[in-house]
Amino acid sequence: xxxxxxxxxxxxxxxxxxxxxxxxxxxxxxxxxxxxxxxxxxxxxxxxxxxxxxxxxxxxxxxxxxxxxxxxxxxxxxxxxxxxxxxxxxxxxxxxxxxxxxxxxxxxxxxxxxxxxxxxxxxxxxxxxxxxxxxxxxxxxxxxxxxxxxxxxxxxxxxxxxxxxxxxxxxxxxxxxxxxxxxxxxxxxxxxxxxxxxxxxxxxxxxxxxxxxxxxxxxxxxxxxxxxxxxxxxxxxxxxx
Length: 241
Description:
It is a single chain. The radius of gyration is 19 Å and the shape is globular. Helix 7 (91-110) packs across helix 9 and helix 9 (132-158) packs across helix 10 (163-185). It has 13 helices and no strands. The chain is mainly α. It is a multi-pass membrane protein.
């Protein structure tokens, strides 16, 4: 699995896709956090990074599928999938290696944004006037969100040999899991609305963004990742049916 991970990660870094993804993410977040007056931290008057954490999930909604769309679809298109599957590797190792490579690339996009935190920390009055617990929770929430989106994207790529279709399926799947349940809950009332909203990512992400690291939220994210990766495994096994 580590060999697959290294191969995929190096392949990403040797292609322009990785740099386009990283560049778009950093430029978009930088403009909204520091430049645009309606969302700029400098004009907002409060030492926090809520703009970043509100915007990042929507950018990830498109950028992570752009990373994952080639994982299996490109192998199928190029005819190398059979060669890969005949290697002395289990389906789980192949899926795990490709998935972790996509997830690590998404985390790589988050690392430069730590400069935003240190900048706001220094600019605060008094210095350090920022809710560090909420910031840590928000970063954890973004990392877990990226993990779920990457798992959904890998699944979408395993279902087709066309990268564009894989991208579109992943975007729709990520949107439904992130925002679809919240939209459905908004038309319901009482306990039904609460339970439906808990099926989506947004509710759990909001809890983590408050600095409340609850084991139920962690179990939710890990469960969604596990289900998506198991579905990917079934999709690969279907070649033998």
